[in-house]
Amino acid sequence: MIRSTGTKKILAVVLAAGFLIIGLNLLAAYALGKYYTTGFLLSSDFVTTAGPEPIYTWQPNLKHRFNAAFNVTLTTNAAGYRTHPFTSPDGKRRLVLLGDSISFGVFLPEEENLAGQIEKISGARGAAIEVFNLGIPTYNLRQYAESYRRYGKDLQPDTVVLQTEPGDFRDPPTLVLRPWIRKIPLLTWLLLRYHRSRPFVDTSAAGLATYREIVEDCAKRNARLIVVYFPYLIPNPFNNEWRQDKERFESHGAPVVDVASLLATVNPDLTAFRVRPEDPIHPDARAIALVADRLVTMLAEN
Asked: What is the rounded distance in angstroms from the CA atom of residue 95 to the CA atom of residue 41?
């Protein structure tokens, strides 16, 4: 009887621990599904290509629903970008869009991201622009430049739009999640929490060097360069980091579209433009439409 009682207690503890672990993993899986960047970090749909500055793109020729958090279909071309097939110039006005997840269009269908809205607005005004979107989530200035070297130049654009945001002069710490780790939601969630608490690395010197390279190449090709600086969608985005980054871009002669000031003319509370209430980075389709309208207007003036 004593042994039986002791065995039952052990079994009860083991079962309770098992249910607790299962429950915590289910909660972690739910939390990961709610947090959009998990899709980027855990996705097997990225492929890295070697080079002086290794870059990653999506797998080529994808067409599927990315994940439940996005609720949109992701379609990529043969190079792994969410855009048109890369073709030779055919007389149409061309624009190459360099950027990160904002250009990519997190939570937005392709026709509502920045490239799609520029094409829609310019077409409606009788001056259609073909936009090639090289935006990939988590890209920074060095990767913008590398994607421009590999693909953007050969597209021979009339205009290059560089979409940037706070943090592009700083690199996040590297996080590598092994395949077996990705299968354990609780462990993955804990590692991501730790990862987000680590400080960024200042890469402003390298970032400015690659930015100058884009500026110089556009000047050589007689292509127009416009910088679009998106803010964090927080109550007070006009902080020292915003001012410093804006000055860095303006110091090289390219016009800067200050999205924070543009949105503030419509609603001073920039949190109203979040694509999701919990997401302080990515703007909704209304904000993107305002930026696209400003860009099309600028291009029509010159």
From this structure: 29
pLDDT number for residue 36: 42
Residues 248 and 143 in one domain: yes
- Based on the fold, state whether residues 23 and 107 are members of the same structural domain: no
DSSP H helical ranges for the chain: 2-34, 37-42, 101-104, 114-124, 141-147, 179-182, 185-197, 204-221, 240-250, 259-264, 285-301
The residue count of the chain comes to: 302
Clarify whether residues 44 and 30 are in a common domain: no
295: nearest Cα among 14, 99, 8, 26: 99
Per-residue confidence (pLDDT) for residue 38, from 0 to 100 = 38
User: CB under 8 Å to 174, separation ≥6 — which residues?
Assistant: none
Answer yes or no: do 143 and 255 share one domain: yes
Instruction: Give yes or no: residues 131 and 272 share one domain.
Output: yes
Mark whether 159 and 124 lie in a shared domain: yes
* pTM listed for this prediction: 0.79
For residues 10 and 107, state if they share a domain: no
Q: What does each C-alpha distance from 233 to 77, 102, 192, 289, 291 come to in angstroms?
A: 31, 12, 22, 16, 15
Residues 133 and 193 in one domain: yes
What's the pLDDT at 74?
82
Q: What's the pLDDT at 289?
A: 98
- What is the dihedral sign for C-alpha 284, 287, 289, 291? negative
| pLDDT mean by block of 10 residues, the chain; 302 residues | 70 81 68 47 55 76 65 85 91 94 90 96 95 91 91 95 84 59 70 62 76 93 94 75 81 89 93 90 95 96 76
Containing structural domain, residue 87: 37-301
Please give the backbone phi and psi of residue 75, each rounded to the nearest 5 degrees, phi first.
-120, 130
CATH number of the domain residue 220 falls in: 3.40.50.1110
State the total domains in the chain.
2
* Token digits of residue 178: 């092994």
Q: In a 3-state reduction of DSSP, which class is residue 72?
A: coil
